[in-house]
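Retro notes, item 3 of 5
We never archived the inputs for the EPZ complex last cycle. Fixing that now. Sequence and ligand:
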Amino acid sequence: MSGSMVIDGGHRLYGEVSVSGAKNAALPILVATLLTQEECVIEHVPFLSDISGILEILRCLGANVVQHEDGTVVTKVVDETACTAPYELVNKMRASIGVLGPLLAKRKHAKVSFPGGCVIGLRPIDLHLKGMAALGAEIEIEHGYILAKTNHLKGAEIFLGGAFGSTVLGTANVMMAATLAQGTTVIENAACEPEVQDLANFLINMGAKIQGAGSHCIIIEGVKELHGARHRIIPDRIEAGTFMAAAAITDGDITIKDAKLEHLMGVVDKLREIGVRVDKVSENKDGLDNIRIRGTKSYKPCVLTTLPYPGFPTDLQAQFVSILCLASGISNVTEKIYPDRFMHVAELSRMGAKISKEGPTLMIEGVNHLSGAPVMASDLRASAALVIAGLVGRGETTVSHIYHLDRGYEKLDEKLQKLGAKIRRIPSSIS
Ligand code: EPZ
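Structure as it came back at the time:
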């Protein structure tokens, strides 16, 4: 369901909210199930349109897939003949480029639509292709598709870095391919994001030999085959960070349950710097944290730069820009991962924010209030930033095109309502 979200601003958030499974861990992990014909059971998979999209791709590639109400997804590949990920599906979601590695490794052929750019800027895949070529794949681009084939992938030393540093999905793709390659692969400058570590843990459960995931050097010793496995997805650190921002901006007092504080240290550091109180309240039996966030009436400005993990994540930049619009002074926000990821800025300006931009840097002059307005969501995280701004905007904010939010936030409106936000969804037919 899409449409708009209408928010009556000015209500402080109180109470408890649980974090869903991480979208960006679940997507590559679901794709990795293509590496075996045995059954895989993935738990804590969020209900999101991006997840439905990847499940559709798995079905199209010969997997039986069942998604249970409790968030468990059971997959089993029953037919390995299909090797094509078509444009209509890849186009909806860039994570589908992740099928390249598993298809090449397991089926020796892959035909995957070239994903192209998207609203957050150019998103090249040269590093994915460089990695596959280093493992011995022959690659051609034809009619908008990547055609890749191999007799057998061979382990190699690969430096996976580009102008903007490491690549998360590129590291995932090469790591998956290397699990079934002959010999040893060393990925230098590997992405260290927790989602890459979670994928590595799943692959290890499947019988892969992987060392160093979570560091800049991952070593994979190829094995002959992988088997089925059961795995529970890590909590979504970006969803948790989004609730932290929502609590902060409303001067709220909320406890975020079942999160992983360790994955959020770059974010927590910034929150504390601007004046938010962040405390770990307790730890549950699975080693997950309950984190209390206490806001205040006025925030200090700050200098914020997005960086690969463990630095401040690009996926929380927009949400923090919303908070800094109300800080008592001038903040600078520099985007080092996607220099054009600023679609929220024009919309926040419609709400009274004072933001100027030079290259990949925003200068934000804090104002004393935002005012509710009709605004348009343009991508997932920009949409979240607009909802967050709407929580404090004076009067009513209507965020349209919210299908973007449904790609990556599970029941965001319901979770915010439980925390006391006055937010409602209007389906597109009547919005
Ligand atoms: C993942 O995208 C996430 N997506 C993104 O989340 C996230 O913003 C991004 O990592 C950075 O953390 C998923 O996990 C599904 P990258 P990914 O390759 O892996 C450049 C969200 O909102 N690059 O790490 O595609 C690239 O242009 C989304 O949930 C190359 O130059 O990102 C960027 O500047 C959006 N060549 C930088 O590297 C390549 O071949 C990092 O991108 C690949 C990437």
